[in-house]
Specification:
Helix content is about 5%, strand content about 55%. It contains 5 helices and 38 strands. About 45% of the residues are buried. About 5% of the residues have low confidence.
Amino acid sequence: MRSQQFLRTTLSLAVLAAIAAPAAHATDKPDAANDPQSRGRAPQVLQEIEVRGSRQETASSLSPSQADLDIMQPKSTVSLDWISNHTAPTADYAAIANITPGMSNISVAGPGLGEAKQTTLRGFNDNQYNVTYDDIPFGDTNDFSHHSSSYFPAKMIGEVSVDRGPGGASQLGEATFGGTIALRSKDPRDTFSFTPTLTYGSYGTELYHFELNTGRFSDSQDSGKLIASAQYNSTDTYRTNSPMSRRTTYFKYVQPVGSRTELTFLSNHNGIRFNNPDKTTLTQDQINTLGRNFGLNNDPTSTDCACYNYQTKRTDLEYFGIDSALTDHWHLSNKLYTYAYANDSHETPYIGTKASKTNMGGYDKVNNYRAWGDVLTLSYDTASGQFRTGLWHERTNNDRSSIALDYGNGGAIDVDPKKPLLNGQSSAYKYVMRDWLTVNQLFAEYEWRITPALTVTPGVRGLQVKREIEAPINQTTRTPLNYNQTWSRALGFLGANYAFTQTWSAYGQVAQGFLTPNLNQFYVPNPAENKTRPQETMNYQFGTVFRNERIVADADVYYIDYKNYPISAVDPVTKDPVFYLAQGATMRGAEVEGSFLIARGLSLFANASTIDARFKNSHLRIPNVPSSTAAIGLNYQQGGFSASLNEKYSGGQRAYVSGYNPDDASSVTFTSRSQGYWRAALALGYGQNLSGSWLKDWKIRLQVDNLFDAKQQVVDSVKKTTPYYLVLPERSWFASISFSI
């Protein structure tokens, strides 16, 4: 504890020293990346370099996350350098994004070794914001939540940007509501390389990653280039008897066509198998009795046996993209894409089947969906700005079922012989259904440069969403349901950015957010009577950005009016599910982040946010939302050395007894609170470039998470008067070696 306090005190004093540093340290010399007039510039090429050559480090190059001068809503971007050198090689996108202001994330199995829990952004839960990959939104079709370990591991990610807001009119996704975590893929390099990476660490973790860059196939600038990689990761994870293994492949081919057009084909496949503890959360008594890291056991007479709790998942995402300058003024971009998710989950074991009161039973849950979509954007450059318009269409097919099994009878279906059929299906089904989601979005916006310093961007988005469901056995009610509903909205956006100087700008945004109604709202006797409405937000936010070679910093304030908060419960008399819309909530707060170059290659960084998220009528705090976040640390990069020491803070949060009414504070009969907590991380690395040898370079890395081995837990839910906790892992380490030929 004293070591943690010493670290935070030392870093806090360094922050104060940096803030008090005289302005004479700043430089007015702009660079292309910092020039606010370079709007519409081509995105940075994301090529991972194992060992950087000698270069002059700046505050920007050393900062874990930062904002650009030309933004119109708060946005923090985590660079490929930070991902490659300062996060665990096993990390997922949630662990990477966690360093940014307003983000909070819990990995109960270890960094990237299991699905992230309570991944919140400004008080919005995982299913209330978008996650995109190369601007393609993906997520579960029922509630738009995401499975962080089931898609793109860190080595397949080139950059992570966190947009804290609904974006402009051109922002895509079913959840343009609380923000967007935007992932970008890695680009192929211009020269040939083959780079193996070998990692070993805590929990018996092994990771093998092999990356091939072909370089350009010829000396011509019209020549294509390819990056292909394969990864295998196996681990016992932090939790007992809960191993995980994952195989991932990645392929991206870029082909120029003349000087104006570029074609891209990308494919990413992921297969994962893991044991999933039925006790995702633990009571304090269970923690004391079973241990902090309890997950499963190997006792076949126990419902906690690993033999009854396991999942296999397969995901893929592919797209074919074209990017073309049609004329000197017109530009076209189009992506035709598909992505899929297939989950076969053995879960919820129970004792006492239809065949025997002593047999062990359980459920086999299947969730398979595939989405097909296309994104078309046309832009037209004028002397005073850029006009953008486009269309997004996506259609998703989803099959869901859950059927009871009798493990004591060899895993046969646990069907009641007296009632073998229910609505034409086996009565062993808990539910069986098929649903479709169709989304159409048309948008238009104009980025108007009124003066060289002032840019204003008005825009409008027309959105139409249709849900269809055919369920012989509907989830929860177990009655047939054939139903469809369509929602249409026109959403307005207005953003502005003013450049005071070449290093300092301010921005503001007023925007409407939209969240497609959750499919779970249909799991009631008559969904037509629910008057289901989309969740909507009105967002107001203002901020400023400062960037030069010595300092990069940004700050913002925001206020969000949230309408139509969905609540589901069970009628205490009829036991039927009921659904209603609470009045809503408000979110307000402030965010700040910055990095200061102390000396050559050494920088200090820090960020902080306040989050006041409350229900409107009752003024209760929204559950499972930290009251604040912060991060502080030092980053060193010079020659072949890299090192960082940082701490992340997540504020205290609350959980309420289930079945409460958020519009009525008196309905909360029991509340549990957990205090805020700090977690420290250390990263060390060294590498060298070589010449005159078949070996181009080599690098070694050590990553230590929870450096001070803190014993922490966060409240997740309350049943009656018993709190249930997510237990955070103890200290872990991961060592890696890589080289290029």
